[in-house]
Specification:
Elements (H helix, E strand, L loop, with lengths): L16 H15 L14 H30 L23 E2 L2 H4 L6 E2 L1
């Protein structure tokens, strides 16, 4: 059958008296539980086996259809290449070499930050 091990954490402090009693009651109830094992011996009938074979055939047909579709898509002409993205804008220099506008903010309202 099966063996069950139960570990209970109890606290000797007076403030945890009721929690400790509850834990000990639970452990004593768990000790009384009996388990029984049994082997699953239900045999499949011919109808169930035929249903499973039909389902497996349908799944295989769907997989083959998807593979054929993927193969047909891979044989199509490749898509034209995308235009390259423009290079990032250089930072804008100011009269003061310590303070520059960042490229991201150069187009968005003129907020300044120290670098």
């Amino acid at each position: 059958n099966a063996r069950v091990a139960v570990m209970a954490h109890v606290n000797p402090a007076e403030s945890h008296h009721f929690e400790t009693l509850s834990t000990l009651r639970f452990v004593s109830m768990v000790k009384t539980v009996k388990t029984r094992s049994s082997k699953n011996e239900r045999l499949k009938g011919e109808d169930e086996m035929a249903e499973e074979a039909a389902a497996a055939a349908a799944i295989e047909a769907e997989a083959q259809r998807l593979l054929d579709k993927e193969h047909a898509l891979s044989l199509r002409a490749p898509a034209p290449p995308r235009a390259p993205s423009p290079p990032p804008a250089p930072p804008i220099a100011t009269a003061d070499a310590e303070t520059q506008m960042s490229p991201a903010r150069a187009t968005g309202g003129g907020l300044w930050e120290a670098k």
